[in-house]
Give the backbone structure.
Amino acid sequence: MMQLIIEFAYTGSVSVTWENVQELLLAADQLNVMDLVQTCCDFLVEQLCPENCIGIFQVTGICYVTELQHKAYHYIIDHFEKVVFSEEILQLSVQQLTDILGRNDLNVRKESTVYEAILRWIAHLPEERKAHIAVLLSKVQRALTSMDYMRINVMSNELVKNNTECWLITREAIATICHLTNRRSHLFNYLARPRLPNAVLLAIGGWSINNSTNVIEAYDVRADCWIKVTNHLEHPRAFLGTAFLNGNVYCVGGFDSVQPFSSVSRFDLRTHTWHEVASMYYRRCYVSVTVLDECIYAMGGYDGHTRLCTAERYRPETNQWSLIAPMQECRSDASSTTLHNKVYVCGGFNGNDCLQTAECYSPDTNQWTMIAHMNCQRSGIGIIAYANHVYTVGGFDGFTRLCSVEAYNPWNNTWHEVSPMSTPRSNFGIKVLDDQLFVVGGFQGFTTSYNVEYYDATTDEWTDACNMEISRSALSCCVVSELPNRVEYIVPCDLPSLLDDVSMES
C-alpha cells in the first residue's frame, strides 16, 4: 500500500482494484492523502450492490468518509428487499439492525420482509441473539401485515410465544388490524402507518372536463393514495410529454385547446417553481418523450397541420435542443421508452391510419431501425421498458379502445402477448414504480378515467390501485426519486419524519 501511495504522489494515478481498495483507503486516510481517499471512495460507490453494501458501510466506521458512508447506508435502505438475502446482513450489530428496521424510509413493499429479516439474523447466532427479539419486533409495522400472517407466521413462532413482551406486541397488532376500517385509517395509527416510498409517481396535466388542465397529482405507493401538489403557476397542457432529470420534471410540448406548443417548462421539485427552458425546433402535441444518457428525446407529434417524423434531443447542461435523424415514419399519438441504450417508439397515427409499426434509435450511429411489427395497430398507446422487455399497452386500433398488452424481446425481435388490463384505455399515463408497471387514467371510448391499475411481470397479473382524484386523459406520468423533500409529495401523517442523519452507533 505504501508503494502505491508513493507512486500516486509522483504520477497522480493509481490502479484501484476490489482486492486492494480497502487497505488502500485505510492507508490513504491514515496518511491524509485525500485525493487518493476520494479515488477509493468513488471506486467503492461504483461497486455498491446488495451483496457488499453493508461491508462498505462498515468500512466507513473505521475510516470516516462521510459521502461514502451516506451513499452506502442509503443503498442499504433503498435496496433492503435484496440486501436481506445477503450474508453481510448477518454481521450487523443489534443496534445497527434496529436503526435500519426502525427507519420510516426503509424501502419494503411488505412488512413481512422486515419480520423475516429479524428471524434470519437471530438464527445466525440464536443463543446470543434471541434476547433481542422484542426490541427488533417493535420496529415492524405489524398492523400492515394481514391477520392470517400474524397468526400463522408471528404468533406461532417459538421466540415470540416464549417472550411476554413479544406476545403483548402481537396481540396489540391484531387488535389494531381488526379496527382498521379503510385505507385512510392506516395513516393515523402508529402500528399501521406506511413507510415512506423511495420514489413517487406524478400524473401531470391532461384533458379533463372538456379542457386542458395543469393539475399535478402525486401517488404514494406505500399508502396507495393520491394527493394534489398543483401550484397552478404552469400553463395547462394536454397531450404533452414529461421527463425527470437531475431533480427536475420537464414538461415538453402539448396542447392547450388552442394550439400546440414548442415550449418546454422545468418544474423544480425542491422549490415548487416553474422555469421556461429552450423551446424545441417544432411545435409538438401528441409527442413521444423519453430520457437516455442525461438527455431528453422528443419525437414525432402533431404541429397543428402535419404529423411529424422529426426528432430532437435536449441537453440540460447547455439548455439546447439539436435535431437528430428523423424517424422512418411520421407518428403522432405514439409512445417511447429506452432500453439497453436505445430509444424505442411504437404505434401512433400517421394522419390516415393507426400504426402497427415500431422502430428504435441508436445514438451511437444516429440511425433509426424498424423492428418487428406489433400484433395489432395502436394509437394513443403506452410503451415502457420493464423486466428487460418493451411493453406496449392499450391504445386505439381505429375501431375500439384496447386492453391488450404485448411485450417485445429485443434479443429475438419478437412480440408476445401478456395478460390484458382490466380496463380498455388510450391516451393514459404509464410508468414503472416499485418494480410494477402502472397505467393511469386515459380515455375509455366514452369518457375520461380516474382508474389506475398495475401489472406485475412475475405473476402476469393486473391489480387495481387507488383512483386519481380527477378524471383525465392525455396526461403524462413520471417517477421522481432521491428527493430531499419527498414528504411534500406523499400522504401526510402526524408522526415526525425519520429522515435523519445516519446513526453511527454500533
In short: The longest strand covers residues 199-204.
